[in-house]
Amino acid sequence: MKIQFMKYRWYSIIGSLLVLLGTLLVTEYHFGGFNKGIDFAGGIKIEVAVNEKITADTLRAFFSQKNIPAQVFATDKDQRNTIKIEIGGQTEVLLTAEAEKNKADLEARGFAVNSVDYLRAMLIDSLANKKESDVQFINADHVGPTIGKYLTVAAVKVLSVALILITIYVAFRFRLNFAVGALFASIHDLVITFGVIGVLQIPLSVPVVAALLTILGYSINDTIVIFDRIRENLQGQEELGIDKVVDRSIVQSMTRTINTTTTTILAILPVYFLGGEGLRDLALVLIIGILIGTYSSNLIAAPVVVIWDNIVKRRRFKRA
Amino acid sequence: MIIGFIIVLSIMLIWPNIGERTVNVYFQEEISEEQRESSLQGLQEYLKRNYGERYSFEKRELKKDDKSPAETVLSVKGNFIQTAFLNELSRQPGVDGARLQLEPMWVERNLKARPFKLGLDLQGGMNLVLEGDFEKLKEQLERQYPPSLLEELNKQLAAETDPEKKKEIEFKISQVKTAFDFSDERKRMDTEGALEIIRSRIDRTGVSEPLIRLQGADKIEISLPGVASPEQAKKIISSTARVEYRLAEPSAGGSSGPFTTAANARFKDYLQLQTEYQRKEFIRKLESEIKLPRQYGIFVYMERTDELDNRSKAGLVPRYFMVLENEVALSGDMMSRNVYANFDPETMQNTVEFELTAAGRERFADITTKNRGRQLAILIDGIVRSAPNINEPITGGRARISGSFSPQEAKDLALIIREGALPVPMKIVEERSVGPTMGQESIERGFKAIIFGLFLVILYMAVYYHVAGLIADISLLLNLLFMAGIFALMDFTITLPGLAGVVLTLGMAVDANVIIFERLREELGRGNSLKKAVDAGFQRATWTILDSNLTTLISAVILSSKLGVGPIKGFGVTLFVGIVTTLFTSLYVGKAIFFWLVFDVNIQSLPLGWGKYRKALKAKVEARAV
User: Fold this and answer.
1) Do B410 and B498 belong together in one domain?
2) CB contact under 8 A, A264 and B547
């Protein structure tokens, strides 16, 4: 089998850039930016038990009457009979301020002074005739506006350090052009996955960050296996021209590429379907990232190695 | 041999998690027989209603040793008993929370294996992140030191000629300046102080396995397993600790006072006691036994240790008795927030310097003048945490505690003194609560997903690579087992994303086997004999596998290093352990199985799946037969 992957190297690189640009543009102009989720933008997420007084309708009526922008939606009936409420970061700040104003009242009733408890107190008063047991919060997440920045900074820092060290390792074990290829491919995977996250409007959360980091690991692993093949085939065959060697290496590794990608995705699919809401986004991001990672090892990392190699050779040629 | 040993060890290490566990629920001793009976009834009904399907329970009579009388306990048995459940039990009426713990298993006593800790997302509980509200603190300080004060002081300084007084004003200026210095260092110190206070508040409530740690410079993360209602958790945190200062019994010529000596003679007996109630009773009896005058009382000096001691959940260990005055000499609110650990270059000693409020200054001067040479004990919630000597009268409102402290001890003492008030008001910036049933659901879903994913991978490998695939499957299962064993040793907290990380690692672990098998097929396809192919195949594949895994290992190390935060760190650790076990199972266990089959059993062909390599191999075998 002979496929001349390297003949089309510019197509895949330009194609990736176009996809990246496209996803970012769609995210920005169609959706108005990333869906930041409460982990990053701050806000309140509450799951409340349904009973005759607490239903989606009464809750919606309550929020519109109080003029609180909140999203109310029912969860899957077969899982739990609950309703989810999501409130954005801006509103959360206002609610906290309100809670602070009603501090004396909240404390007298034994509630802590913060937005979640303030909301619960209001619900108890308006919808449950002041009967506390009728308003049961099953889950309550409340994230202040500062956490997101902290997380972003930490994630970016961790990613950069990891990338730099990996590049150094690859440069040391292989050659500089391989290191450049690996670096490009890793950044490519992270950024494009990020773009797809934006297009699919997956809410950014801590598990999603963890997934991005894993993709980095997976993609590097995949890239190195192909590099290893290229390095092995290069020995004594350099006169063939690096593109031929790379083509052959990619073909030789093809079965392993397909099998590894398949098994990894097979392992994650059940997490997507059975893992419940908490894991669905994480699994989805992983699946997307793994597919992109597989693509980039073959059609981004390897071409960059070839291109870099050609540039270096041309320079040497000119100098000579 | 080695492989067998590691397998057995891993199974033993994870046994506390999968085996059946027992919890003996004791009831409080101070309540009456009828109350105890009704608590027992109530608890039984509660368990039947909420946990009837998962746990079994029975009434038993237990004796601590032959001498003590039998006690009625409720023995709860079941799999997967979590801390959250224990914390829930301890809040039931009449239950003695202090004596509630899992009966340790043999491996736990002897091998340091601990049951897995489940993250709050899996066992239910409350997670809070608090942040120091330095804006608010600034407002408060501005009330204390109005902005005009500094100007005024500067004017005074310029006008003053007397060097003594000049020094005093300069000191005041620097004091005001330090109060408003919001450097990162200062923020960290204040947050650490707040953390220490919050820790002692949480310790007091008996919530077991709380996680309280610094996040960045000005945030505190708190996890309380099993505390389901947010109100309850927030109440725990916002309750105020009581700090007070009491004078000790005067010492008699270098040695401790007669009552102190008499009380400490019985200290050993005190240590034997199991429950809070027994200890209180013991001290009450001891006080009348040694005929303690009414103005004194016996208090316990405790130290914080890092050793995990099951009996003292708080990590505070009693050291000795102190006889202190019942009258409080100074209350915590008389201390200002300016408490610092310092180093005195003249005496070469670490010291703690503190300042009093205006109200405290006079009182402190009075006490230190009258009671020179006596110890002044610092108590937090009735427990003595430090007892420095009064060396000289302190009239200026600033004092220094000196002694043979290590720098760390001085720092700790400064924290303790500052515990009178939170050094900086805290606000809740993040809050997550997960109900216990939710957590249970997540575990079940998570495990179902893992098992199913594992099954699919195993199936795929067996179908694609036939017998060799089965060998890969064996090493995959061993991989999972080893990972679990390492987690058990590491005292690792499993979270939902962590579980996903495990799944992913399993998917990737197969990669090593795939690389090896593809190599084998290639070697065989070239017409090599099976022996030669296995030999060369492993040799070539080893470096590929090492290189690819080592690069992934780099990112795993970075993620689990100091740079990673909270959940990211946990994920990194999962990845790290996964890579190590993958390398071991594929390059050591898998290789051992292959080499044993090919070289010892001497098989002639090995089904490696479909493809043209088979023909080559077949031809080879036939050629040899001819």
Assistant:
1) no
2) no
Residues B386 and B449 in one domain: no
- Whether B425 is covered by a domain: the verdict is no
- What pLDDT shows up at residue A295? 92
Interface of A with B in 270-289 (CB under 8 A): 270-271, 273-276, 278-279, 282-283, 286
Do B403 and B489 lie in one domain? The reply is no
Question: How far apart are the C-alpha atoms of B85 and B123, rounded to whole Å?
Answer: 8
Residues near B59 by beta carbon (within 8 Å), at least 6 away in sequence: B40, B72, B73, B74, B75
Window 184-223 of B: residues touching A by CB (8 A cutoff) are: 215-216, 219
* Residue B378 counted as domain residue: yes
Domain assignment present for residue B466? The answer is: yes
Residue B563, classed as helix, strand or coil, is coil
Specify burial of residue B177 (Cβ count, 10 A radius: 0-12, 13-18, 19+). exposed
Whether residue B151 lies inside any domain: the answer is no
ipTM greater than 0.85, yes or no? no
Could you tell me the residue range of the domain that residue B397 belongs to? Answer: 243-419
Q: Are residues B284 and B334 in the same domain?
A: yes
Q: Annotate A75-97 with b (16+ C-beta within 10 A) or e (fewer).
A: eeeeebebbbbbbbbebbeebbe
pTM, 2 dp:
0.69
Mean pLDDT across chain B: 76
A118 is written with which tokens?
């303030």
A130 inside 8 A of chain B by CB: no
Looking at A96-100, A156-160, A300-304, B511-515, which range is the least confident one? Answer: A96-100
Question: Smallest CA–CA separation between B214 and chain A, in Å?
Answer: 14
A/B interface, count of CB pairs below 8 Å: 235
**What's the sign of the alpha-carbon dihedral A178, A184, A187, A190?**
negative
Partner-chain contact A260 B448, CB within 8 Å: no
Specify whether B302 is located in the same domain as B415. yes
Query: Quick check: B510 and A263 CB within 8 A?
Result: yes
**Which domains, ranges and CATH numbers included, belong to chain A?**
5-37+147-319 (1.20.1640.10), 43-143 (3.30.70)
At which residue do the structure tokens 């290639």 appear? Answer: B522
Using a CB-CB distance cutoff of 8 angstroms, which residues of chain B are in contact with residue A79?
441
CA distances from A207 to A241, B86, B565 (A): 44, 28, 12
Q: Identify whether residues B415 and B481 lie together within a single domain.
A: no
- Tally of structural domains, chain B: 3
Taken in order B46, B47, B50, B53, the sign of the CA dihedral is: negative
CB atoms within 10 A of CB B454: 21
CATH of the domain at B58: 3.30.70.60
Cα B364 to Cα B284, B330, B333, distances in angstroms: 30, 7, 13
Q: Which residues pair with B356 in a beta bridge?
A: B335
Sheet containing strand B56-62, strands side by side: B21-25, B71-78, B56-62
Place of tokens 């739990």: A80
- Residue B522 and residue B383 share a domain: no
Q: B507 and A217 in contact by Cβ < 8 A?
A: no
The residue among B57, B89, B104 that closes a domain is: B104
Strands B243-247 and B330-331 turn out to be antiparallel
Domain boundary residue, one of B104, B134, B156: B104
B366 and B325 both lie in a single domain? yes
pLDDT in tens, A31-87: 777 777 777 777 787 878 777 777 778 888 888 887 777 777 776 555 567 787 878
- Give dist(CA B335, CA B357) in Å, integer: 6
B129 touches A: beta carbon within 8 Å: yes
Note the pLDDT tens digit of each residue in B556-565.
888 777 666 6
Give A128: exposed, middle or buried? Use CB within 10 Å, 0-12, 13-18, 19+. middle
